[in-house]
Amino acid sequence: MESIQRIQDFEHLKILADSHRLTILRLLMAGPATLSQLGLVLDEHPARVRHHLKQLESAGLVELVDTRVVRGFVEKYYRAKARAFLLHEVILPHSPNRDIITALGSHDMAFERLAQHLHQRKPGTVELLVLPVGSLEGLIALRQGIAQIAGCHLLDPESGEYNLPYIQHLFPDREVTLITLAHREQGLIVQPGNPHQIRNLEDLTRADLVMVNRNRGSGTRLWLDHQLESLSISRQRLRGYECEVCMHTAVAAAVQRDTADVGLGLLAAARQFELDFIPLFRERFDLVVPKERIDDRSLMPVFDYLVSGEFRRTLDELGGYETSHTGEQINP
């Protein structure tokens, strides 16, 4: 049996030697997605994505979990069968010379840049894996010990406070520390020149507009749902509300490709795709770390770069980030 398992693992590794398939599997570990959604993120034609997906499915690494009718088309949703534990046991086997840091939570472009920096500057020694699963899922993964860092931007409508009320609810018996990454600007991402003359959330109810939405459990989705409730707007009135993507860049890509007219996301994503932007709110994005791991040697490269001038300049280049509180610690 052990030899059979070694053969299976070897076959898995051969399949994952292709960077596109590895990226697809990582995205599906973050949450279910369709061929079209994967194609948007990867900037690949769905037919090419289907080729890779079928190989992953044949290897038993992904599975079909849902089908939905969206705008008259049947969308098939796939997810990874192994999620986080496969990440460690198959994709990234343990190495005594490499620190592997798993960060789950809401998607953030600046945090992705931080991960890229560590990969380029410290190749083979530090690997920061940032998986966009949504703020709530990230905190749950941290609670379960699957992740070492969770990224979140959850607004508590009653207190107007970000993240702390959720931390106090999910970690009543465990000390954690919040480290502010930055304050971010979010709003409506629209096509260049705003041809549909979109001004606010109320316009999303227009029959001539199709939106693209963020995934359930993400801070952006929770903010939108709260605003819709406050405005007494039924979700059923929003065309495309059920079309979910797990990244701000996927929202922008959908608008750029004209598969959606509008979506809620980061100013940085709008700028990257050369789209227009209607600002709606500014929020605090925190990294949540167990207090006992604040001085962990493996996490030091993350925290050191977070407070560096180079990282602040990176955020300035992205746009929509305010860094006056970057690196500050909050202890609930």
Q: Keywords for this structure?
A:
D-Maltodextrin-Binding Protein, domain 2, 13 helices, two-stranded antiparallel sheet, disordered N terminus, 3 domains
Quick overview of this protein structure:
This protein is α/β, with parallel strands linked by helices and 332 residues long. The chain has helices at residues 2-15, 19-30, 35-42, 46-58, 83-91, 109-121, 135-144, 164-170, 219-230, 248-256, 267-272, 300-306, 309-318; strands spanning 62-70, 73-80, 99-105, 126-132, 149-152, 176-190, 211-214, 244-245, 262-266, 276-290, 321-322, 329-330.
What would you say this structure looks like, in words?
The protein is built from 13 helices and 12 strands. It has 3 domains: 2-80, Arc Repressor Mutant, subunit A (Orthogonal Bundle), CATH 1.10.10; 87-178 and 290-318, Periplasmic binding protein-like II (D-Maltodextrin-Binding Protein, domain 2); 186-283, D-Maltodextrin-Binding Protein, domain 2 (3-Layer(aba) Sandwich). It is 39% helix and 24% strand. Strands 3, 4, 5, 6, 7, 8, 9, 10, 11 and 12 form a 10-stranded mixed beta sheet that branches. Strands 1-2 form a two-stranded antiparallel sheet. The chain is globular. The chain has 332 residues and is an alpha/beta fold. A hairpin with a 2-residue loop joins strand 1 (62-70) and strand 2.
